[in-house]
Amino acid sequence: MSEVVLKAERRDTGKKAAKAVRNRGLVNGVYYSSGTAAIPIAVPPLAMRPIVYTSDAKIVRLMLDDTAYDCVLKAISFDPVTDKIVHFDLFGVDANAPIEVEVPVILHGLAIGVRDGGILEHTTHKIRVSCLPKDLPEHIEVDVTNLTMAHSIHFSDINIPNVTILGKAEAVIATVVPPRVDESAATGADAPALVGQKGKKPA
Fold this sequence. Notes:
Elements: E1 2-7, E2 9-10, H1 15-23, E3 27-32, E4 39-43, H2 45-52, E5 58-64, E6 67-78, E7 85-92, E8 99-108, H3 112-115, E9 119-122, E10 126-131, E11 140-143, E12 152-154, E13 164-165, E14 172-177, H4 183-187
Parallel strand pairs: 1-5, 3-7, 8-11
Antiparallel strand pairs: 2-4, 3-4, 5-6, 6-7, 8-10, 9-14, 10-13, 12-14
């Protein structure tokens, strides 16, 4: 499990208050958990980078009023023009209760099918898992070395201690497909026809 510390300050609610936060160069957010009231917060945009721009799943340790809250990033919104972060939601987790989180999938190894001329297709880039916060994997590594032509690796092939893979067991993570063939080149459809005398094809 990877953890990142995020220091935040409380903020007021409402459109004017949210605008005031943005004018200070901060990002509006909210922290909430089951059975508790939401806490509006604000953080510097640079502090969000290790949480948002990463290929790993992380537990966020939110520091607010000298109190630490363990949580996960639940939602995030970006400005459609500037692509800057404009709002985020953090959801509090209980150390003794399972959480559901999407974990990135990383492929490694050179597949046998690729060495034989096939093409490796990475179908699933994130897998939703259920586990205790302490057992949350940063990512799921999938070894494709033994993957042969026209075969696939499925959700059912993944086994991580204390982690439940959510989703259909037959869902495909990666597969090796045969190289694509240009049908027109194979059939000669684009080749010019031979023409005999008077523009007729020879018999």
